[in-house]
Prior knowledge:
With 73 residues, the protein is mainly α.
Amino acid sequence: MGNNSPLLKKVENAGIEGIKRKRKPFHITPADFFEEANTIRQLYAQFINTPESNRIVLIPSVWHRKCDLESTF
């Protein structure tokens, strides 16, 4: 069923903004994907204390599959 704990307002607002973006997918460019991915890499690199954010790999399909598995069990 997933996680049913309360969300922070910031998380709720980010989710709403994401849904709004998907409403008009023709406005999403390849550059948008890479810019967000680079930001995520840099933040994660800081989190694990490494200067090499370019060595962090993001694989979108893994996250979607993980969510599918969580909702199954």
